[in-house]
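Entry for the shared binder. Reason: the reviewer on the internal report wants the predicted structure included alongside the sequence.
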Amino acid sequence: MSRPGLATVLLVALLHALAWHCLLPAWQGEDEPWHFELCELVSRGHVPRGGHEVELATWTREPHALGEVLRRFPGLERDEAAELQREIAASMHCARWPERVDFAPYIAAPASYAGYAPGYSAATQPPLAYLAGGAWLAGFDPHTLEARLCVLRGLSLVWFLVTCLAVCEAARAWFRDDRVALAAGLTAALLPFHARQAAIVTNDALATALGALACWSAARVQRGAPFGWSFASLVACVAAALWTKTTSAALLVLLPLAPLLRTEAAPQLRRRGALLGALCAAALATGAWFAWRSYHSPALPASFATASERLATGARASSWSELWSTLVGRTGWNTRGFAPWVERALLAVPLVLALGLARFAYLDPRSRGVLALCTALVAAQALLVALRGVGSARYALPMLAPLACLCVLGARGLRAESGQRRWIALLAAYALAFGVLVLWRSQWLELGT
């Protein structure tokens, strides 16, 4: 993609992210206090390990969040961990966290943030995001807790910019059209639910960046780049994503599909590449499963009955409704957004884009293979979200690149070139409206701050 196009995407992404940094209060991202805690501990030299067992008395004596941290960091002293949680809880109190998060109880003098959300902990998550965040934080010297939070949010901004650039390059590699690439990158930059990840401490930001990089590598494999390096980069990105967040598991489908769909390759080479990809996917999936079990990850069902129950919950209309409401943008831990009737009206957008996508596929037969692949990738991620049993749009972010491409080409199918421009203009207007009418009003204006 041309340098002016990439510069445009970077500038728009940076401005949108900075707006969120200014408008989103401290500790307001989902699980942000818990993610920050792990990064802070790593920056102090503590190394997370697999699920180290602690004494049974610890679970009955200590808050759940403290017990999970002590289990994950076997060399950590109890007093140091408890003091850090008290400091974070006090900072959350000063930031008026209970007033901005509707489900949280008010605690006048919190001894630990476990009282705000009992049962919450990030210590069961894969470690890569915390190792990267701790290393980043160790390179700076902010003295206050709030300043250290801002430094870590700066790393999320870096992951956000990397994601937008990777979406651009993935779209260009798939469709070989700089205009589609530019529009896809701007879509990633302007989506409010994605830009939010640039302003909070979360492992979702790194998982999203790695997902976009994996899609870029897969597109290069498909489009005839040297197989060795491009496939190795694809495997590395998927492995790193699995080491970051369990919702990246859908990226495993890229490993056999990318070699199988290679253009200008002999059928025998495609089959061999697909077999190699399937073997790599099986190896990574097995390793990830045992690693996640050692972390006591709640994403893994304890039994087939639990898995069936989760799938039934994820397939309900209420779960899909929650997925949609968080996709169009909510804050305050998914409790504050546009009015329900506005969210229902916005359901017309994917329906119209789907019609445009069908028309685009009809008019451009050469693109049908890649369009089918992008649709399959988004569907695989949606299925994974349903299996998780929790309808949250941030769980769909690892497949942001194909999602952005489908949106752009759906708009293009409606009105050719002008459709892309109108889509970006409407998306920019929506991002502005969300920032003013939802984020600023509900997080600042209503509190009188």
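Summary line for the report: The chain is about 70% helix and 0% strand.
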